[in-house]
Amino acid sequence: xxxxxxxxxxxxxxxxxxxxxxxxxxxxxxxxxxxxxxxxxxxxxxxxxxxxxxxxxxxxxxxxxxxxxxxxxxxxxxxxxxxxxxxxxxxxxxxxxxxxxxxxxxxxxxxxxxxxxxxxxxxxxxxxxxxxxxx
Length: 135
Hints:
Layout: H1 5-35, H2 47-83, H3 98-103, H4 111-119, H5 124-132
């Protein structure tokens, strides 16, 4: 389903703005939790408590890393909305399917180019093959 880039930007721009605010809140919460002093003075801590706290820190760090990466993608998508190129694949220039953008509004690539990026290589023959099989 192809829709003009400007109408996609108008419709999905607010979704991107909301997601930006959510991601900034996640990152702010992590920053605040890292800057709060611990209360290690008053209680007895055993190895289970320490392991649990470490596990939670690792999860929080991974969540913050993911949020920072997604925030970069959202900001780049908002920039594309502003410049009028939102909805075009950054690699091949073809329109990104509206269903893909509805599911992943910050998607920078069409399905074929995304598959190539996930494979970690960009042989031109594979790119041509994937684009010729798109429907």
